[in-house]
Design a protein that fits this description.
It is a single chain. By secondary structure, the protein is an alpha/beta fold. The chain has a domain of about 190 residues. About 60% of the residues lie in helices and about 10% in strands. The chain is globular and about 60 Å long. The two termini are about 35 Å apart.
């Protein structure tokens, strides 16, 4: 599975990192994700334990993933119900407050969450005027930084969960608990995505170093070893869409961002966040 990413300068030294949206993807729930507690219980305890230490580490990790996906699905259903609530109701006001909180989520976190754990390669589209080594270096930097930051925030958010659960005794919806629960899940996914991206970048670099230090190989073979996990696609069209007449401090205007998002299937709101990020 390959993820298609788009990278380009958007404001001064700030760059935008975004994943292409597949227009053919239905966005439905995975068939392996349980929808009820009975299905979750059955999938967690149906497998036989391993004779060594009771179970393998991979089995434990897959069960944790199963629980996380189950909780994420429940949160998504609850969010959809809030979105459908009539105007002026408490649920509708909670939904509006949630949108305000979501607008504060950094675009880099959204980017890392879009990197699934199933991918084995990435395709990078970037302006043809940029050097591919610079693009790779910037991606490695944000991936390493994201893997550290989101792991720290994940532990901090998880610690706050028991504290916010005490508000369950109130008759109103426990907004603090569900927000901290969402932030815990979000940082968990962002940490996984950044680590996966960092692994792919580091893995591709290590392949080149190993092949270069061994027996001589042809140029085509050397390129094939890189393409297996890391593909660069310099785009002259993206270069033309970038309005270099804009001031470096102001960044790209809304019209230019809209054209780039339409051409490369990007989320316009997420891209604008990169430009407005201070």
């Amino acid at each position: 599975m390959r993820a298609k990413l788009v990278v380009f300068p958007i404001r001064g030294r700030s760059w935008c990192f975004s994943r292409m949206i597949d227009p053919s993807a239905p966005g439905a729930q995975s068939p392996n994700t349980p929808s009820t507690f009975r299905e979750l219980y059955s999938m967690l305890f149906s497998s036989k334990p391993s004779p060594v230490n009771g179970f393998h580490a991979s089995e434990a990790s897959s069960k944790v993933e199963l629980v996380v996906d189950f909780v994420a699905n429940k949160m998504n259903v609850a969010w959809i119900n809030l979105e459908k609530a009539p105007q002026g109701t408490i649920k509708n006001k909670i939904h509006g407050f949630g949108l305000m909180l979501l607008s504060r989520v950094k675009p880099s976190e959204i980017f890392f969450k879009s990197i699934p754990k199933e991918i084995d390669s990435v395709e990078i589209t970037y302006p043809s005027s940029l050097n591919s080594r610079l693009v790779r270096r910037r991606l490695r930097h944000i991936a390493f930084r994201g893997s550290v930051i989101h792991k720290q925030y994940f532990y901090k958010s998880a610690i706050l969960l028991p504290l916010t659960s005490v508000f369950m005794v109130l008759p109103l919806p426990n907004v603090p608990f569900f927000w901290i629960l969402f932030r815990t899940y979000s940082h968990w996914r962002a940490s996984q995505g950044s680590e996966k991206l960092l692994h792919l970048v580091t893995d591709s670099v290590e392949k080149v170093k190993v092949r270069e230090s061994s027996t001589p190989i042809s140029v085509k073979e050397s390129k094939d070893s890189i393409v297996s996990s890391w593909v660069f696609q310099p785009s002259a069209e993206l270069e033309k869409l970038l309005d270099h007449k804009d001031g470096a401090d102001e960044g790209l205007d809304d019209s230019t961002i809209s054209k780039i998002c339409q051409k490369f299937y990007l989320n316009n709101a997420d891209v604008v966040k990169y430009r407005n990020l201070m």
